[in-house]
């Protein structure tokens, strides 16, 4: 009898708690939200994140605080997201690098790119551009290839870390073109640009949002893009210049810690779709060379899983494994 009564009392307590949880979700957001960007301020990912969060803040009527946590190709900031409480007050910018690609190169990545997170939405996609500085000794791709082939192992290339898609693609580019270059990793592309301009490194494979202004100002040279670029419309594609099969896209997404209530994920996705699948929000993203997507949480989850397989297979073909 005592056991039965205890169970009834516990059941009543749980029943009373459920409406409270529902009310808490209905009241969300009731305090500031933080969005962790796993790269430094000033780069392409940070620029896109600040635009997206500004419009999401307006749509939700909530304060959203950007917190930059760079390092290890985006894995430090992504780990902070994975370890946070799934209460709707911590989100993170995910990228092709920080999630599908990160575990290819490091055995000690402290999260699973799929199961440690709640996918909220794919935000958009952007091409890659090969940027050259003074040490590239060229004004076009053909000139750079000729110089780099004549100086094997002596041309430095930058990346934002060995856990990134940019690094994987640069290794792929070396194989396709017969180059042998030396790798210099940085914490973020905004830190690599000064060294591109002063000649410490010769090239960087990056996304247009972080580099287009420097190209337009004549401080750096854009040699080629993986897909046609709105920000760099006069720059030819790699394929048009004879580098076949080099046409990858980079994506930005929004994730939360695993266990986020699905109602919150759906509400955020719907708010972002309302802002960015129509103008002026869509035009603002496209001005950064990002094509808006705003997929559903389920669709973004499938993208995460599929890309993890695709890029791992690419790394295996290139003979690249974990460090």
TrEMBL record:
* Listed InterPro entries: BUG, Bug_dom1
Annotated Gene3D superfamilies: Bordetella uptake gene, domain 1 (3.40.190.150), Periplasmic binding protein-like II (3.40.190.10)
* Record's keyword terms, sorted: Signal
Q: Where is the signal peptide?
A: 1-22
Spell out the SUPFAM superfamilies in the cross-references.
Periplasmic binding protein-like II
Membrane is among the record's keywords? no
Task: Identify the Pfam families for this entry.
Answer: TctC
Of which family is this protein a member? Answer: Belongs to the UPF0065 (bug) family.
Report what the protein is called: Tripartite tricarboxylate transporter substrate binding protein
**Originating organism:** Roseomonas alba
């Amino acid at each position: 009898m005592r056991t039965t009564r205890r169970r009834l009392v516990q059941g009543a307590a749980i029943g009373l708690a459920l409406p409270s949880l529902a009310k808490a979700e209905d009241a969300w957001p009731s305090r500031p939200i933080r969005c962790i960007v796993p790269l430094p301020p000033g780069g392409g990912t940070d620029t896109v994140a600040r635009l997206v969060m500004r419009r999401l803040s307006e749509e939700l009527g909530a304060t959203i605080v950007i917190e930059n946590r760079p390092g290890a190709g985006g894995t430090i900031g992504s780990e902070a997201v994975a370890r946070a409480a799934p209460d709707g007050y911590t989100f993170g910018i995910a990228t092709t690098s920080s999630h599908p690609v990160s575990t290819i190169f490091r055995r000690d990545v402290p999260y699973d790119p799929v199961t440690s997170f709640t996918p909220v939405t794919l935000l958009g996609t952007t091409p890659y551009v090969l940027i050259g500085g003074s040490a590239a000794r060229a004004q076009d791709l053909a000139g750079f290839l000729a110089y780099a082939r004549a100086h094997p192992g002596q041309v430095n290339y930058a990346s934002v870390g060995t856990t990134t898609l940019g690094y994987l693609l640069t290794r792929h580019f070396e194989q396709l073109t017969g180059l042998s270059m030396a790798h210099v990793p940085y914490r973020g592309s905004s830190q690599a640009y000064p060294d591109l301009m002063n000649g410490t490194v010769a090239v960087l494979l990056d996304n247009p949002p972080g580099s287009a202004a420097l190209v337009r100002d004549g401080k750096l040279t854009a040699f080629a893009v993986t897909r046609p670029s709105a920000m760099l419309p006069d720059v030819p594609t790699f394929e048009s210049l004879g580098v076949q099969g080099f046409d990858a896209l980079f994506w930005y997404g929004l994730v939360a810690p695993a266990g986020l209530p699905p109602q919150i994920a759906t509400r955020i996705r719907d708010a972002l779709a309302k802002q960015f699948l129509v103008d002026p929000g869509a035009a603002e993203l496209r001005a950064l060379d990002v094509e808006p997507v705003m997929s559903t949480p389920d669709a973004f989850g499938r993208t995460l899983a599929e890309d993890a397989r695709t890029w791992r297979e690419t790394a295996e073909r290139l003979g690249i494994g974990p460090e």
